[in-house]
Automatic annotation (TrEMBL):
Stated name of the protein: Urea transporter
Lineage of producing organism: Eukaryota, Fungi, Dikarya, Ascomycota, Pezizomycotina
Chief subcellular location: membrane
Pfam families named among the record's database cross-references: SSF (PF00474)
Record's bilayer topology term: Multi-pass membrane protein
Amino acid sequence: FSLFSFVSPALGSGILFTYPEIATIAGVQGVIVYALASALPMLIFGFVGPVIRRKCPEGFVLTEWTRQRYGMVAMLYLSFVTLVTLFLYMVSELSGVGQVINLLTGLDDLPVMIVQCVVTTIYTSFGGFKISFLTDTIQGAMVMGLVVVAAITIGVEVDIKRDLIEESGLLKASLVGWQLLYILPVAIFTNDFFLAQLWLRTFASKTDKDLMIGTSLATFAILCVIVLVGSTGLVAVWSASWPGDPAQAGSVAFFSLLDSLPSWVVGVVLVMVVCLSTSAFDSIQSAMVSTASNDLFRNRLNIWVTRGLVVVVIIPVVAIALQAPSILQIYLISDLVSAATVPVLCIGLSDRFYFWRGFEFVVGSLGGILTVWIFGAIYYDDPMKGAELLLLQQGLYSGDWGAFGAFVAAPVGGLVWGFGALALRLTYQYVMARVKGHRFDALDRPAADDDAPAPEDAEVIIQQGAVKSKASGRFF
C-alpha cells in the first residue's frame, strides 16, 4: 500500500502559507511543534484503523461504524460534520492554490480554480477511488523530489544574515509556542478523524500490517516535508526577505523568500503547488462523494447523481474561496468542532463503555461547542466576543489565552455534557421502567454480534453499493 496514498491527502497548497507563518511567530519551537502535531496523528489510522475495521469490516468510512455503534441519528450528525469539514477543506485548498498562482505569476485566481475543479472532477468521476490513489502516488513522488530540489537551492542561494538570527528571537521559546504545544496536537489529532479521504485509504489497505507500514512511512515523510516548508519562514526572517517594507503578513513569508531566488525555482514551486493541490482536492472530492452516497442515500441513489450534487457544491466553494479569510483560520474552525466531537465519539470504541449511546455522543459534541461560547463570553465578559471565539477570528496569536481556552473548553466541555446526558438518559429510563413496571435494562450488556470479526489480514474491498449494512446501533 503506497505511502503516498496517505502523504498526498494530508498535504495541500495551504502548507506554503500556514507553516511558514507559524515560524515567523513562534520560531523554531512553533515549527517543531506544528510538524510533530501534523505528522504524528497519521499514526491514528495505523493503530485505531484496525480496531474499527474489525468492528465494521464491511464499512469504508468512519460514519458507517458510527451508524452501527450509535444509530442513524448519530451517523447523520457525524456525516453532516464530516461534509462540512470537507467543504471547508475544499475552500482552503482552492483559496490556497489561487493565492499561490496570483502571488507568483500575477494571474487571476478564478480561472485557476475553475480549471482545477473541472480537471479533478473529470478524472475522479471516471476513475473513482483507484485513479485518486494512482494520482496520489505520482503527485506525491513528484512533490518529495521537488521539495528536496527547492531545499538545496534555498541552502545554496539564500544569504543568511547572522546578526538577524539572535535579534529575531525565533530561537527562543515563547508563550504562543507553549500554547501551541497543546492546541495543535488536540486540533489536528481530532480533526484527522473527520478526513474521510484518509478513512477510505485505511479501509482500502489489504492488511493491518500494510496499513501500519504505510502510515508509519507517511508520518516520517510528512514530518520531513513540513519541517522543510516551515523552515522557510525562519530563513525568510534571517535573510531579511521578510517582513519587508511595507511589512508583509507572516502567511506570505515563503513567497517573500522566493523573490531572492532564481526564476526557475518559481517554476519548480508552481509545479509542486499544482501537484499538491490537485492531489488533495481530488481526494476531498472522492471522500465527499463516498460520504454522501453511503450516509445520506445509503447507496440507493445513482452514483452519477451524487457526483453531480458534489459538482453543485463546488460552485459555492469557489465563491467562498475567492473571498476566504486566512487559510489557517479555516482549518481552526474545523479543528474546534472536531475537538468537541471526537472525544465523545471515541468512548464508544471501548467495550467497557457498552452503555454509551448516540444520545450522549450528539449532546456531548454540541455541548462542547456551546462550552466554547460560554468560556469566551466569561473570559472576554462579552457574549459577542464569545461568539467570535467560535470562529477564532483572532487566530492563534492574539496574545491572550482565548484560543488556548477554546481548545480546552471544547473537549472537556464535550465530555462533561456527554456524561451529563448519560445521567439524564439513565434517570429517565429508570423512572419510565418503574412507572411501567418493566425491568430496568439500560445498563445490560448488548448481545454479542453474530458476525465473526474480520480476520487480522482480511482484505477490505471498497466498492460503491457493495456495503451490507448491519442493524443500526441504539441512539437512546
